[in-house]
Amino acid sequence: MVYTNITPREAYAKIEKEGFAYLDVRTEEEFNQGRAKGSVNIPIFINTPEGRGLNANFVKQVQAKFDPSTKLVIGCHAGGRSAKACQLLTEKGYKNIFNIDGGFGGRVDPQTGETIKGWEEEGLPCG
Fold it and tell me: Which residues are identified as catalytic?
């Protein structure tokens, strides 16, 4: 793993102070229901005739929007899909990327039962 997990508050600080961009990898439907202010949506999974599957064009779509030198915080609903996105992008030369643990909607840690707050629950800017 070449990327680091950070909290939504840490991600917000990186956006505000260090010029990071927010890449949201949730579905378009999820993104349209609520999103971080200024975020860009490129879904990592899409609906296919066989069901939900990996977006085969994901990396190319990210490359078309963001140069590998771009500083990115990457989020989904809870942190799983964004971790997969971080993995795929580090394999393609993206070096300055961070996974938002808790994503937009938050999650419960399966080992500790602790609630990890998401972007929305933290009260960070939405739009």
Answer: 76
